[in-house]
Write a structure and sequence with these properties.
The protein is of the alpha+beta class and 90 residues long. It has a domain of 61 residues. The chain is 29% helix and 20% strand. The chain is built from one helix and two strands, in the order H-E-E. The longest helix is centred in the first third of the chain and has 26 residues. The model has no long low-confidence stretch (mean pLDDT 83). The structure holds iron/sulfur cluster (SF4).
């Protein structure tokens, strides 16, 4: 009786572990990132050319048409779309 219950709990535990791993794979390590412009797909980063290298500035623009000039670093908006990254990107 008790052994059957233990086996049942172990099976349930393994199923839950597999579900957690699957969810972590879906969300990735970026699941907790803030929903601000920096992590939004609508944000286009601006760059400045320094010699032969392009360096990102602290500026950009929004292709969803939202004004960003007075927004604060942690602000988000209704048009926020999480940025997607390729498998080889960090
Ligand atoms: S859609 Fe909103 S969060 Fe995204 S870049 Fe534009 S202003 Fe920022």
């Amino acid at each position: 009786m008790l052994a059957d219950k233990v086996k049942e709990l172990e099976l349930e535990n393994n199923t839950l572990k597999a579900q957690v791993e699957e969810l972590q794979e879906i969300c990735g390590s970026r699941g907790n990132l803030p929903k601000n412009c920096e992590y939004c797909q609508n944000f286009i980063q601006h760059y400045v050319k320094c010699g032969s290298v392009y360096a990102p500035t602290y500026d950009g623009h929004c292709v969803a048409g939202n004004r960003m000039k007075k927004s604060k670093a942690g602000d988000t908006c209704k048009s926020f779309v999480p940025k997607t990254y390729g498998k080889n990107c960090i």
